[in-house]
Amino acid sequence: MKVVARVWCGAGRTVARLRFTLGFVVVLWGVGLATGTLHSGPRPGLRLAAGFGLPALAQGHWWCVVSSALWAGGLPQYFGVTVVVLALCGLAEYRIGSARTAVASLVTYSAGTLGSLAVVAAGILAGDPWSRRLATMVVFTPSAAAFGAAMAASAALPAVWRRRLRLTLIIAMAMMTLYAGVLEDLIRLCAGICGLLLVPLVVRRGERGAGLGPSVVEARLLIAMVVAASAIGPLVAAAPLTFGNPPLSILRYLLTTPHPSATDVTQLCGDPSMSFECGQVRALVRLDGLGPAILSVMPALVMAVMAEGLRRGRRFAWWGAFAANVALAVLGMILLPSELAQASFRSLRESATIAVPLLQPVFVAGMLVVYRNKFDVRAPRGAYRRLMLAVTGVLALSALTYVVGSYLARDQFDRPPTVTQILADLPSRYAPPGYLGEIPITFLPERGAAVLLYGWTGVVFWSVALAGCMATFLRSRVDTSPCGRAQARALLRRYGGEATAHMITWPGHQYWFSDDRQVVVAYRVRSAVALTTGGPVGAPGSLNTAAREFARYCAANGWTPCFYAITDDVRRALGTGWSALQVAEEARLSLPALHFRGKKFQDVRTAINKAKSLGVEPRRIRYREAPPQFTEQVDALSRDWLTKKQLPEMGFTLGSVGELDDEDVWCLAAVGPDGTLHGVTSWLPVWRDGRAIGWTLDFMRRSAHAFPGVMEFLIASMAMSAQDEGAEMLSLSGAPLARIDRDGRRIPLQRLLDFVGLRLEPVYGFRSLFAFKAKFQPEYQPIFMAYPDAAALPRIGSAVAHAYLPHMTLRQTLLLVRTMLTHVPRKPLARAHSVSGDATRPSARGARGDHRCDARRPSPLRRHS
C-alpha cells in the first residue's frame, strides 16, 4: 500500500507540474477520437475547414491559424506528435511553468503559420515552383507549437544544454524543410525562429541560464552534429516524404537515382533511334539491387563515421571530413559550367539547385578549417599503420576476386567481357552508383555470381574501411609507463590520501602526473571515459588545481573525465560545471575513543568471547611472507566462494586474492588451535607523512565451518591492534550502491542508483553489508562520482560496469538482468538520525530491523567490503 501511495503521489505531482503538456495531449487525442480521425486523419471536408493553407484562407477560414493544431494526419502521426509534445512542451513547462509555456505555444504556432504563408507568397512572386506547390497544401501541424515553445524556453537552460538543444532543433527543422520540403516542415521552422525571438518576453533575465562559451569537448560535439546533419540530409531528401523538389532535394541524386524497370530497357533498346536513351537507361540498371543501394549511401556513412571521430577530437577524422567536403565542392565546380549553360534562373528553386549543392560542402569545410585546432587527438601508436594494412589488403583481395570471378563467370553478363574490359570497369565497383551516370558501360550482370560480384565488391571494401576507422576512433592513446605505479606509490607514502587511496597502486591503472610530478591521478579508460580511482593524490596545496588540469588533459584526448569514489572535499573542489551522485557510503571508526562497551556492542563482544572459548586467535601476517599452508587455505576459501556464485567476482574498488600480494597490505586471519582458517580479512594502509595512520578493510572471506561472528571478531581485533599502535582511524570501506538518505530530497538519477542497489541485493548484498558494519557504530562519509556532462552518463555507466565486471559473459549478464527484474526489493535504509558535518550515525532502526546481519548469514560476510 505504501508503494501504491508513493506512486500515486508522484504521478499527482507530475500531472500538476505538466498540466498544460498533458492537457494538450489529451485534447489532441480527444478531438481526434470525437471526429473519427485517429486512424486515417481528417477527411477532405474537415481538412479544408480546419487545416491551414492558402486554400483554407482563401475561403475565409481565418481560424485555421489555431485550429490546425488540434488534428494530426493519422495514427502514426498522432503517436509521433505525442512524443514530440511530451518531450519539448514538457521540457518547456518544467523550466518556465505552465502559463508561459501555453502562451509560447500559442504565439509561436500562430506566428509559424503566418510566417510560412509569407515565405510561400514571396516564393510565388519570385516564380518558384516549389512555393507554388506548397500553396496547394492544407496541413495540420500540432508539433510546431512544441518546437516553438522549446526554442523559447531554451533560454532558461544552462548554457551547455541551451546550445545543444537549439542546435539540435535548428538542424532538424532546417534539414526537414530544405530536404523534405512539405508545408508542415516550413511551419515548424518559422515557429522555432519565432520562439527564439520570443525569449525576452517569455523568460525573464534572471531566469536565463548563465554560462561560459563552449568548452573544447562541447565545441567538438556541436561541429560533429553539423557534419552529421550534412550526411543525413541527402538521405532525408531521398525518402518518400519529399514533396515538390525542395531547395536541397537535388543532393539526393548524389546518393540515389530513379531505377528503370526491365520493360523500360527492352522498349528503349529495341528502337535503333533511341540509342542514346538506351545507354542512359542501361547505366541506371546498375543501381538496381541491395548491394548498389548500400553503396549509394556510403558517402553519408563515411560522413557519419567522420562525425563520430570529430566528436572524439580525432585529427584523422578532421582530415577525412575535410577531404570529403572538398571532394563534393570540387565535383560541384566540375558540374557547374554545364548547369549554368542550361539554367535560366527564372525561379528561386532553380538558383538554389545550382548554388546550394556547391555552397554546403564549402561551408562545412570552412567551418572545419576555422576550428581545426580543436581536433588534435591522435590514435594509439601503430593504429593507422594497421588500418592502412587492413584496408590495402581488403582492397587488393576484393579487386582480385572481382577480376578473376568476373572472367570465370563472364557468360553470366549480357555481353561477355574481356580481361581488359573488367579491369577498366574495376574502379567503378568502388564508387557510389549515383556518381557514374555519365560513365559508359560495356557489360551488365544478369544472374548468379556476376550479380554478386558486380553489386557487392565495393560494399565489402567500404564496410571494412569504415569499420577500421571506427575502431581507431574507439581506441584510446594512454600512457603505460612502467614507472608510473612506483611513482604513485611514492607520492602516496609521502602525502597520504583518502581511506581507499592505496587502491591506486593496484594493476590496471594508467597514471597522470602534474607538471611538477607532485600530484598523481590513477585512472582507466573505458568507452572513451577516463574513470579515476578516487581523487588526486599528492601535495595538498596542488590537489584542486591538479583535478582541473586532469579534466583538461582528458578533454585534449577526447575522453570524458569521471572522478569516481571521491570524498565531498574533492567534489566541492571541482567547482561549478560538475554534477555528482553518491555511489557508496564509507563506514569509519575513530580509534582513540573506541571502546567495545555498552549494549550497542553486544554482538561484537559476543563474537570476541566465542573466539576465546574456541581457542581461535587473530593472526596478523603479510600474504607474500605467509607460509604455504596459510596461502593455500586462503586460496581455497576464495575458490569455494567463487564456485558457489553464479556471477563473477567484482573488481575495480573491490579487492581479490590478487591484491593481497602487496608489501604494504596486512592480512588478519582467525586461526583455530589446529591451524584451521575460520576467516581472513585484508587491510590497506592510510598514509600520512610516511607512516600509516589508519587502515582500510578490503578483502573478506569466511570458511563454511567458521564460528558465528568470525568477521565481527576479526574487525574488532584489528581495531584494538591498530589502537595499541597509535593509529587514528579504521575504515570499514564503502558499501557500493548503499547510502543513508540524509535530507530526503533525491534527484531522479540518485533514485535510479538506489533502485539498482535494491535490485542487486540478492546478488552482491551491498545493503546487508552496509547494515552489518553498523554493528560497530561507525561514522559515515558519503562517497561520490563526479562528472562534467550529464549527456555522457550512459557511457560512464558502461565504463563503471566494465571496470567492476570486466570478464562478465553473456550468460552471466542475462542472469544478472533476470535477477534484477524478478527480485522484490526490501524497504530502503532509514534516514539519518543525526548529522554532524559529513559524518552521520544511523538510527538504531536503520542499523537493525530488516537489515539485521549476523555471522550465520553468508551474504554480507562473504562479500567484498
- Rounded to an integer in angstroms, the radius of gyration calculated over CA atoms is 34 Å
Number of helices: 35
The helix content, as a percent range, equals: 40-55%
Q: What is the count of distinct domains?
A: 3
Number of strands: 14
The average pLDDT value, as a whole number, equals: 79
Gap from first CA to last CA: 34 Å
- What summary fits the major beta sheet? 12 strands, mixed
Uncertain runs are 240-257, 828-865
Indicate the proportion of strand residues: 5-15%
CATH topology of the largest domain: Aminopeptidase
The class by helix and strand makeup works out as alpha+beta
What's the overall geometry?
globular
Q: What's the architecture of the largest domain, going by CATH?
A: 3-Layer(aba) Sandwich
Classified by CATH, the class of the largest domain is Alpha Beta
Domain Phosphatidylglycerol lysyltransferase C-terminal: 489-787
Keywords: Cell membrane, Membrane, Transmembrane, Transmembrane helix
Protein name: Bifunctional lysylphosphatidylglycerol flippase/synthetase MprF
Biased composition (Basic and acidic residues): 847-857
Please describe what this structure looks like.
The protein is of the alpha+beta class and 865 residues long. The chain has three domains: 15-213; 259-474, no CATH class; 587-785 and 839-861, Aminopeptidase (3-Layer(aba) Sandwich). 54% of the residues lie in helices and 11% in strands. α7 crosses α11, α20 runs antiparallel to α22 (448-474) and α26 packs across α28. The longest helix is centred in the N-terminal third of the chain and has 28 residues, at 98-125. It is globular, with a radius of gyration of 34 Å. It starts with a helix and ends with a helix.
